[in-house]
Design brief:
Layout (H helix, E strand, L loop, with lengths): L25 E2 L2 H10 L2 E8 L2 E8 L1 E3 L2 E7 L4 H7 L3 E14 L7 E12 L1 E2 L5 H12 L12 H5 L1 E7 L2 E7 L18 E4 L18 E2 L1 H8 L6 E2 L1
Antiparallel strand pairs: 1-10, 2-3, 2-6, 4-5, 5-9, 6-7, 6-11, 7-10, 8-9, 12-13
């Protein structure tokens, strides 16, 4: 745990979890699941509170065969779901491109999406520091060595929960526009895929950061991938 990379190679799905519409887009490739979870930074946690559905976006990290999320001990719904052993769903989606077909009806998206079902488990207190470090290193690699240590008060107000990757359904579309020589469409109308690319922008120092303060290595690595240079903010 917290760095353990062992995993099984396929997703086991029970009958209720099987995709029924466009079932051919379902994948059981666990490597594809891990690639999705290791690339995206935000997922959506869905719970039912007092009979009302609640969906909240949350930062997360994959640690081996679990997802890690965190929140305030005073914040409620996730800890309540964990205490009640309620089944939750955690969804992660990556939009990879827009598919322009020769009709609006046939236009689509290329994407990878996964929904994890299960019960949130509180991380034991003696494992909280390691779990928070794993979460931080996923979101902001290298930052933990550049800032002060977390105080006991901060630790006491933070709770880490984990969700096992035991019950997962994943769906993928990675194809061009549907077309055929004899489909009856006007082929002089452009059709194809517009890939979506994302990139970090230029770092912007806070108001109270003194002029000339070097941009830290963690930020440089995030925005440029270059760990060997130093820049001035």
């Amino acid at each position: 745990m917290y760095g353990d990379t062992r995993f099984v190679t396929t997703l086991e799905t029970t009958a209720p979890r099987r995709i029924r519409r466009l079932a051919e887009r379902q994948t059981t490739d666990r490597t594809a699941l891990f690639e999705l979870l290791d690339t995206e930074l935000v997922g959506h946690l869905a719970v039912v509170v007092d009979g009302t559905p609640l969906v909240v976006p949350m930062g997360f990290a994959r640690d081996g065969e679990h997802l890690l999320v965190h929140g305030s001990t005073g914040g409620g719904f996730a800890l309540r779901a964990a205490a009640e052993r309620a089944t939750v769903a955690f969804a992660v989606t990556a939009l990879d491109g827009l598919v322009f077909a020769r009709s609006l009806y046939d236009s689509s998206m290329n994407y990878r999406s996964a929904v994890v079902y299960g019960v949130l488990e509180p991380v034991a207190e003696d494992e909280t520091d390691a779990a928070l470090l794993a979460l931080t290193e996923r979101l902001m690699p290298g930052r933990s060595s550049e800032v002060r240590a977390t105080t006991r008060k901060e630790q006491a107000s933070t709770r880490v929960l984990r969700l096992a990757l035991d019950d997962v359904v994943m769906k993928v579309r990675a194809a061009g526009a549907g077309e055929a020589v004899d489909d009856g469409e006007d082929h002089s109308v452009w059709a194809g895929v517009v890939p979506l690319r994302r990139a970090w922008g230029e770092p912007a120092a806070s108001v109270l950061t003194p002029a000339g303060t070097p941009v830290p290595d963690s930020v440089i690595a995030l925005t440029t991938g270059d760990r060997g240079s130093r820049r001035i903010s």
